[in-house]
Design a protein that fits this description.
Elements: E1 12-17, H1 21-33, E2 39-43, H2 80-88, H3 96-100, H4 106-123, E3 127-131, E4 135-140, E5 145-149, E6 153-162, E7 184-186, H5 190-194, E8 202-205, H6 209-220, E9 227-231, H7 258-274, H8 280-286, H9 290-295, H10 299-317, H11 322-333, E10 337-341, E11 343-349, E12 354-359, E13 365-370, E14 372-375, H12 389-396, E15 416-418, E16 424-430, H13 436-439, H14 445-460
Parallel strand pairs: 1-2, 1-6, 2-3, 6-16, 7-14, 8-9, 8-14, 9-10
Antiparallel strand pairs: 4-5, 5-6, 11-12, 12-13, 15-16
Helix pairs in contact: 1-4, 1-14, 7-8
The structure holds flavin-adenine dinucleotide.
Length: 465
């Protein structure tokens, strides 16, 4: 790809590709760990940092899926987000303890990261330049790396953190690209969802957290039309419940095969309930051990997990605020929200609206007519199909290889990107969802902040090129 010619960019010590939450967490670490006037450059096409798809919403009904007490940007200051929430709350608002358990608006999380970034810039001996552009190529060498920016040309960097995050999946239906404009929407196009007329009937494809966002926006608008939700398993996210973590010892799980692990977890959930705790307490107990559990599973069991267990895992692991769950349940109970189990086949434009055809599990074809279809199928996990030219460049040149099961990219345990020959790239680290195949639990803030800190510490410890 040829870059437009502009004034050449001066080399930098650290380049961060992507300015979503992951990139900002890496910048925060670099700014606070720097002891010399390092030059840090972040490349992000969006105008506003710390948004990505998760925190770009401007709507108050979209809340975090994790209580405020667990969303700090820093491992060593676990209450930092809570401190921010308390400091910015109205004087007559809820007390600190209530806020610690609250599910705060997601838009405020982006504000929090940007506030901490400004504070870190002011306090650091390093400098941060943000370039609004995309990286389309990356050449890795032993001592440095060269990034190719679409508009700004080449940038030489002593080290690179890749935080390119989530790529939404296209609608998995025949006919999807030809649908009339404005009738087929992405769940993450929050403004377009918000503009759906209140009397419209619609079909949301996917039943995970993006579906929840869409339903909340519709409910907030006083939606009166029917909302069909179509997914292969028709499982809805389950609610959080206060009660802390169970106290069982998760160590024996490491040596078990997948079937035994599932039996163990079901028994742990039953035991939690018998002890007067919610079943969620059993999941909370293994939350910090998920990466180790994934890595200790055989490749065959990982494949089995991806084929047979992942949907159940997702609804138990990625839970939603209890009040959000109650709202969905009420809409289901009164028949406004209709759950369909099946696989989307075709969406066709009709004289008035769209016809959605699906295949059900028992081999039938089910059809229903709607005004809009909303794609809430989530993020693309397979690196080869992600529509990101940088990833294609890295794979094509052999600088990277797909992760286990073709998910994301392969990374060493410390996060260094692994090339086609199996060698870790000394100066390129990956963080976030691209590491899911290697560690499974890799998109939530607790993992991102830990990965960001490790990457930055390792890169700063390398000799300057
Ligand atoms: C709807 C939703 C809700 C979530 N809620 C929570 C929650 O409550 N709690 C929690 O812990 N986690 C939550 N998460 C998970 C997690 O916090 C987010 O996924 C997080 O935003 C991931 O950040 P990221 O920077 O890795 O990726 P992204 O947010 O996707 O950001 C990546 C950035 O990289 C840029 N980029 C991509 N390619 C290039 C390129 N070639 N050159 C330059 N820039 C590039 C993109 O423009 C983008 O801004 C949520 C996720 C989603 C999707």
């Amino acid at each position: 790809m040829t870059a437009a010619t502009t004034t050449p960019l001066p080399p930098c010590d650290l380049a961060i590709i992507g300015g979503g939450a992951g990139g900002v967490l890496a910048a925060l670490q670099a700014l606070r760990l720097a002891t010399t006037p390092l030059r840090i450059v972040m490349i992000e096409p969006r105008e506003v940092l710390a948004q990505g798809v998760a925190y770009a919403t401007t709507y108050g009904e979209h809340v975090l899926n994790v209580p405020a007490a667990r969303m700090s940007a820093f491992d060593d200051r676990p209450a930092d987000f809570l401190d921010y929430v308390v400091a910015t709350a109205p004087p007559d608002g809820p007390d600190r303890d209530t806020l610690a358990h609250a599910f705060i608006e997601r838009r405020r999380y982006g504000d929090y990261l940007r506030t901490r970034l400004q504070e870190a810039i002011a306090a650091s001996s390093a400098s941060l330049q943000v370039i609004h552009d995309s990286v389309c190529e990356l050449d890795a060498r032993e001592d440095d790396a060269t990034l190719q920016l679409v508009e700004h040309g080449p940038l030489h960097a002593g080290g690179v953190v890749m935080a390119v995050g989530n790529t939404p999946k296209p609608l998995p239906a025949r006919g999807a690209p030809q649908l009339p404009e404005g009738r087929s929407l992405a769940a993450w196009d929050f403004d377009a969802v918000k503009a759906i007329p209140a009397d419209a009937d619609l079909c949301i494809v996917g039943s995970g957290l993006s579906m929840v966002d869409t339903v909340l926006s519709l409910a907030d608008n006083g939606h009166a039309g029917t909302i069909h939700v179509l997914s292969r398993h028709a499982l809805l996210p389950l609610p959080h419940c206060h009660g802390g973590a169970a106290t069982y010892d998760p160590a024996p799980l490491q040596a078990m095969d997948l079937r035994a692990r599932m039996r163990f977890l079901r028994a742990a959930a039953r035991q939690a309930v018998a002890d007067g705790l919610p079943w969620q307490a059993a999941m909370e107990r293994i939350r910090p051990h998920v990466q180790a559990l994934w890595q200790s599973m055989s490749i065959t069991d990982q494949r089995r997990f991806l084929r047979h267990v992942v949907r159940q895992w997702d609804v138990h692991r990625h839970r939603i605020a209890p009040e959000v769950h109650a709202k969905l349940q009420a809409m289901l109970d009164r028949g406004q929200l209709r759950l369909h189990r099946g696989r989307l086949d075709t969406v066709m434009a009709m004289d008035r609206g769209l016809r959605v055809s699906t295949h059900t599990r028992d081999g039938r074809t089910d059809e229903f007519d709607v005004d809009y279809v909303v794609n809430a199928t989530g993020v693309e996990m397979r690196a080869q199909t992600m529509r990101n030219p940088l990833l294609h460049d890295l794979l094509g040149k052999g600088h990277a290889q797909p992760g286990p099961h073709g998910i994301g990219l392969k990374a060493a345990r410390d996060g260094r990107m692994v090339d086609a020959d199996g060698e870790p790239q000394p100066r390129i680290f990956i963080l976030g969802s691209l590491r899911i195949g290697c560690v499974w639990e890799s998109i939530a803030i607790p993992e991102l902040r830990g990965q960001a800190e490790t990457a930055v510490r390792e890169l700063l410890a390398l000799p300057t090129p």
